[in-house]
Amino acid sequence: MTALQDLSLDVHPDELLVVLGPTGAGKTTLLRTIAGLEHPDEGTLYRGDQDITRIPPADRNVSLVFQNFSLYPDWTVLENLAFPLKAPGRNLSADEIRSRIDWAADILKITSLLDRPATRLSGGEMQRVAIGRAIVRRPRLFLLDEPLTNLDAKLREALRVELVTLRRELKTPMIFVTHDQMEAMSMGDRVIVLHEGTILQEGTPEEIYTHPVSPTVARQLGYPPINLISATAQ
C-alpha cells in the first residue's frame, strides 16, 4: 500500500503550512517521514541545500508534537520539559536548561505548573506542556500532528490563536496537519489539501476556499456541507 504518491512540497522559512485531509490521507506519514521516523521508498528530503533523507531523526533538528500529548505521566512538568534538553549530544549546562524551560513556560503560560505531575494536568495543560517540550529544543522546523483533536471546542479555539501567535514570535516554520477545515482556514498562511496520499491543491486559505479545483477539495472545505448538483453544460 502506498501512503504518499508523487508528493512534492516546499516549506517556506516563515510560514505556518497546514496539511488538510481526512483520516487515511497520509498526513501523519508525511510528518513521520519529515521527522525521519519513516523512510521513503524513493525521493529526497532537503533542508535548504542539504540532503537529509538518510539522516537519523535525532540529527534533523525538528520537533514533532502528537495529538496524544506523549508526556511521561509520573514526571513533573519541569522534568518533561527538561527531557529533550538532556538527550545525548546536547551538552547543555544546568543553567541553560533551566533558562530554556523558564522561557518556554513563560510563553505558554505554564510557569505555575512546573512542579505539578503530568497526571494532574487538564487536557489543555498537557497540550501546552507537549508544545513546550517541542519549543525548548529551538528546532528549525515544528511538526504538529492533529494537536487539538482531543480538546473541547472552546479550548481548541483558544489554542488555535495561541499557536499562530507562537509561530510568529518564534519565527520558525511550522507544519500543522488536521482534518478540521476550520483549523486550516483560520491558521494557515498556506494550505495543502491531501487525499489518498496525493496533493490535490495548495494555496492560501482564500484561494482554496473560493476556487476549489475539484468536488473532493470542495467537500473538505464546505461548512455547513456543500450541495453538489449534477448538470450538463450546453
What can you tell me about this protein's structure?
This protein is α/β, with parallel strands linked by helices. The chain folds into two domains: 1-61 and 139-226, P-loop containing nucleotide triphosphate hydrolases (Rossmann fold, 3-Layer(aba) Sandwich); 73-138, no CATH class. The chain contains eight helices and eight strands, in the order βαβββαααβαβαββαα. Strands 4-5-6-1-7-8 form a six-stranded mixed beta sheet, sandwiched between helices. It has a two-stranded antiparallel ribbon with strand order 2-3. Helix 3 packs across helix 4 (123-135). The longest helix has 18 residues, at 153-170. It is globular, with a radius of gyration of 19 Å. It starts with 15 loop residues before the first strand and ends in a 13-residue tail after the last helix. The relative contact order is 0.19. The model has no long low-confidence stretch (mean pLDDT 91).
Describe the structure concisely.
The chain has 234 residues and is α/β, with parallel strands linked by helices.
**Sheet bearing the most strands, described?**
6 strands, mixed
Mean pLDDT: 91
Number of domains: 2
Poorly predicted sequence stretches spanning 5 or more consecutive residues: none
Helix % is: 25-40%
What coarse outline follows from CA principal-axis ratios?
globular
The assigned CATH architecture of the largest domain is: 3-Layer(aba) Sandwich
Using only C-alpha atoms, the radius of gyration works out to: 19 Å
Helix-strand sequence: EHEEEHHHEHEHEEHH
> CATH topology of the largest domain, anyone?
Rossmann fold
Trace the largest sheet across and list its strands. 4-5-6-1-7-8
Q: How many E strands? A: 8
CATH class of the largest domain: Alpha Beta
Structural class: alpha/beta
User: How many distinct helices?
Assistant: 8
**What's the CATH superfamily of the largest domain, by name?**
P-loop containing nucleotide triphosphate hydrolases
